[in-house]
Structure formats: C-alpha cells, structure tokens
Specification:
8 strands; about 40% strand; eight-stranded antiparallel beta sheet; alpha+beta; about 160 residues; 5 helices
Length: about 160
C-alpha cells in the first residue's frame, strides 16, 4: 500500500525530530508556508502564504473571498507546512485552529509587518496599504500540535 510506504519513509531513522524551541525558531526564519484546508466536498485546498509570528501565534492575511477563508469559516482547523528547500532539508508542521479578524488597524499593522518580512523595509508600507484594507481577513493560528523534522535527506 502506497500510504504504508509513505508512513515508513517518513519515520526513517536518519531524520531527526526538532524540539519545540527549534520548531518555533525555524518558523521565525524567512520562509513561506503551505496552507492546507478542506473544502466542503472533502477535496484538499493547498496554497502558499506569507506569514509572521506573534509570539507563538502565526498570522497571515488574505482576501475575504479566498477559498481558504470559506473553508475556515466552516471548519476552523488548519495545517501549515513550513519548509526549507536547501539540503539536507527540514520542515515544521503547525496544526491548529484559527480566528478570523477584520479589525482595520490590525490588518494594516500585520500587512505592513508581513510586507517588511518578505519584501524588506522599502516595500513594507506599500504592501501594508495595498493589503491592509477592507475586504482582507486577518487569520491567526493558535497551534495545538507542532512538530518538525530536520536532516530529511539523511546527510
């Protein structure tokens, strides 16, 4: 069975578990995430996101009409995959529940902060003004499960 093979491959001895502090530090580094939710017909929905950290809460913003917003309004459970694509490869997977917010001051603050994280100071204000507007939703993830693996290639 293909799934059994996948499960055994993911538990190979050479992969090392990250401790919790390593998981948080890994997510604080400049990386994008893949955001996974489930549609009403049970098909998976997976999209890349830019995010930032508020202590141990992950924060990102998106359009209110985005598929992920519709799925999260129905079911607030979410899973992210944050990975590095440089050998020997590592990843962290936070799972949890979200809160959806529309506070304009918070939207502007976080859109600007996320812009600074990914596009540096020069573009942060423009990113904030473009993305911290009505029609955007601020999504906060409180992880209920967090794990990571390092040295995935086994080097």
């Amino acid at each position: 069975d293909r799934m059994d093979h996948h499960e055994s491959a993911c538990s190979q001895e050479w992969m090392k578990n990250m401790v919790t502090d390593e998981c948080w530090d890994f997510q604080r580094a400049l990386r994008t995430a893949q955001c996974a939710t489930v549609r009403t017909d049970w098909r998976p929905h997976l999209v890349p996101i830019w995010f930032d950290m508020d202590d141990e809460t992950l924060v990102f913003a998106t359009r209110h009409k985005a598929v992920k917003v519709a799925t999260l309004r129905r079911d607030p459970r979410i899973c992210l995959s944050v990975d590095d694509q440089v050998p020997p490869f590592s990843f962290v997977q936070p799972e949890g529940t979200v809160s959806l917010r529309t506070d304009p001051d918070q939207l502007l603050y976080w859109a600007t902060r996320i812009g600074r994280r990914y596009m540096r100071q020069e573009q942060a204000q423009a990113h904030g003004k473009r993305n911290g507007v009505p029609g955007e939703i601020l999504i906060r993830i409180a992880p209920t499960n967090l794990f990571g693996k390092k040295d995935v290639a086994g080097w």
